[in-house]
Write a structure and sequence with these properties.
seven-stranded mixed beta sheet; 42% helix; binds pyridoxal-5'-phosphate; three-stranded antiparallel beta sheet; alpha/beta; Aspartate Aminotransferase, domain 1; 408 residues; globular; Aspartate Aminotransferase, domain 2; 2 domains
């Protein structure tokens, strides 16, 4: 009674690792939760209070989203991108993930997925019944595709429509895409649309961060939301910004919105206005200061001639490669690591890499973000002694991981 399309999909191994971790914890083992990708910080108080004040809001809101919210988001983004977005360019969804799914459903063509890329893109593309072209990226290119590599795929069948997923800062690599102009040239030359997943963009460590939407706005759908920068993954509020030139896509997604979730929860939308209207620079800067210090600590203390890593540039992940001949697959490697040390990582094969590549994703969020924020000053230089005090599991877990990598 199930469609073949669905029968062949498995729950992601994120869930499997969480399940094994939970069982080991129940047996009294100490687990270092470096597999889980969730902001360690709390939602800022002004936004929480606004949610409380709006709990009474009980009406269905417009399907594209509350006008005032779309208005503040349009103003906020136009200022950042130096491109004029209007409230009508924005669709509010219950998390950006759901909107991406609807995009897969309406799009007719081929999906170009760089490896590594986020775990849900490929299953969603399969459910949308579009062919996937996986593009294996290289460490020396910051784990992003080059313009030439994208062009090679398109040239095989020029007449098709192509949708490229670009996620920068990237989950899982923690890297920022630098090939913006060459990718933009390819998008303009061929029939290429880009989904720019900017969910970690507020957490890019360098202030001069730019994404493909800065360079090629007319071919780019921006996908982002509250989940990562604002610690509000569980609130489920994300949005798409779709330029006028892609209005047919916007209109079709709107139809699917009206036939599926109708509109995002009203109180959450009212509260989200404050997220974009009020100034949260201090909160975001503190988050970035902590994340970049911890990311750098992990990078410096783990890298060796047996562990290759690119230094994280944003978000809360990095992607070590453990040089060894001991394991056949990255998932076998992560199993061994978890059972022997209690350190949970996700295998690179979950992110589109060939299973014999010994890559894994490490999320450096196993600490109490609020306590860390409360303890440090704005712009304080965070030293190892602060990390030792406020993120002790990071120190202990990295130490275990390092010893394990030396034993391979
Ligand atoms: C790369 C990436 N894109 C999108 C999402 C989903 O975000 P949302 O909470 O807006 O659905 C995540 C969350 O884990 C993510 O890591």
């Amino acid at each position: 009674m199930l469609k073949d399309l669905v029968k062949n999909l498995k729950p992601s191994s994120t869930l499997a690792i969480n399940e094994t971790s939970r069982q080991m914890e129940e047996q009294g083992k100490k687990i270092f939760k470096f597999g889980f990708g969730q902001s360690p910080f709390q939602v800022p108080n002004d936004i929480v209070n606004e949610l409380k004040n709006n709990a009474y809001q009980n009406k269905y809101l417009p399907m594209q989203g509350l006008f005032q919210l779309r208005d503040v988001v349009a103003k906020y983004t136009s200022k950042k991108k130096n491109y004029e977005y209007k409230p009508d360019n924005i669709i509010i969804g219950p998390g950006s993930k759901e909107l991406m799914f609807l995009l897969h459903v309406i799009f007719e063509g081929e999906i170009i997925l760089p490896a590594p890329s986020w775990v849900s893109y490929a299953p969603q593309a399969i459910l949308g019944r579009n062919k996937i072209q996986v593009l294996q990226t290289k460490r020396e290119n910051n784990w992003f595709p080059t313009g030439k590599e994208i062009e090679e795929i398109i040239l095989k069948e020029k007449k098709k429509n192509y949708l490229l997923f670009l996620n920068s800062p990237n989950n899982p690599s923690g890297q920022v895409c630098e090939h913006l102009y060459e990718i933009s040239n390819i998008a303009r030359k061929y029939n290429l649309i880009i989904l720019s997943d900017e969910i970690y963009s507020e957490l890019a460590f360098k202030d001069n961060y730019k994404s493909i939407s800065n360079v090629c706005p007319e071919k780019t759908i921006i996908s982002t939301g509250l989940s990562k920068w604002c610690g509000a993954g569980g609130w489920r509020l994300g949005y798409f910004i779709i330029p006028e030139s892609l209005n047919n896509i916007k209109n079709s997604i709107n139809v699917l919105v009206s036939e599926t979730f109708s509109a995002v929860s009203a109180p959450i939308q009212y509260a989200a206005i404050k997220a974009y209207e009020n100034d949260h620079t201090k909160y975001v800067n503190k988050s970035k200061n902590i994340l970049s210090a911890i990311g750098k600590y992990v990078y410096l203390n783990l890298k060796s001639n047996k562990v290759l890593i690119n230094e994280p540039q944003g978000g809360f992940y990095l992607m070590p490669e453990f040089l060894n001949n001991k394991f056949h697959s990255s998932s076998e490697m992560c199993d061994d690591l978890l059972k022997n040390t209690g350190v949970a990582l996700l295998p690179g094969s979950d992110f589109g890499f060939k299973s014999n590549k010994m890559l894994a994703r490490l999320s450096f969020t196993d600490f109490d973000g609020q306590a860390f924020m409360d303890e440090i000053e704005d712009n304080q230089i965070i030293k190892d002694k602060e990390i030792q005090k406020l993120a002790p599991k990071i120190i202990e877990g990295v130490d275990k991981l390092k010893k394990w990598s030396e034993s391979l």
